[in-house]
Amino acid sequence: MKTCLTGKRRYRNQLDARIALANTRRRDRSEKRAYQCPSCHGWHLTSQAA
Ligand SMILES: [Zn+2]
What we know:
- By secondary structure, the protein is an alpha+beta fold.
- It has one domain (1-50).
- Helices cover 26% and strands 16% of the residues.
- The protein has one helix and two strands; from the N terminus they run αββ.
- The longest helix has 13 residues, at 14-26.
- The radius of gyration is 10 Å and the shape is globular.
- It starts with 13 loop residues before the first helix and ends with a strand.
- Residues 4, 6, 10, 37, 39-40, 42, 44 line the site of zinc ion (ZN).
């Protein structure tokens, strides 16, 4: 898997990102939502509110 310049883990599509987000929440991490990255066009998780 290529790494985005943001250094974040990249997901292929919104579904993958949302599944990862659900798993992350289960572990009490801080990520709150998924968003599509403008630089790699993949999906990342962020702790920032929309
Ligand atoms: Zn990216």
